[in-house]
Amino acid sequence: MFFSWCSIGDTPISHKNGVLRIEVDDKLVVRNGNNSLVWSSSVLGSSNNAATKLFDTGNFVLSRDDSIGDLNRALWQNFNEPTDTFLSEMRVPVSSKGGEHRAYRSWKSSNDPSPGNYILALILMEDTG
């Protein structure tokens, strides 16, 4: 199977030696053919019994084995880490913390996954009225 990793557009993996795995600290990681870290999920804490599941919606979820179907207890899910694709079951993530937002960003071109010119994001503005 050919695997092309493009979540981090500036460092795509375009060869057959990329690896997606759960590390001992329960972080989901992508490593290239040289075993160098390309990407890591933002998981806090460790359960030592993590598992992943790809839902029909396209949401890829990292959870503890005993809560794999409960999205409210997920350690990490790709729907909360938008990149360049918006699927029908996704929400645009918004944080009430000042200045914090996540955005969908286009590719530079159809063959170049580095950040492009278009961004979709919601930013909460403080009500002054």
From TrEMBL:
<dbReference type="InterPro" id="IPR001480">
    <property type="entry name" value="Bulb-type_lectin_dom"/>
</dbReference>
<dbReference type="InterPro" id="IPR036426">
    <property type="entry name" value="Bulb-type_lectin_dom_sf"/>
</dbReference>
<feature type="domain" description="Bulb-type lectin">
    <location>
        <begin position="1"/>
        <end position="75"/>
    </location>
</feature>
<dbReference type="Pfam" id="PF01453">
    <property type="entry name" value="B_lectin"/>
</dbReference>
<keyword id="KW-0325">Glycoprotein</keyword>
<keyword id="KW-0732">Signal</keyword>
<keyword id="KW-1015">Disulfide bond</keyword>
<protein>
    <recommendedName>
        <fullName>Bulb-type lectin domain-containing protein</fullName>
    </recommendedName>
</protein>
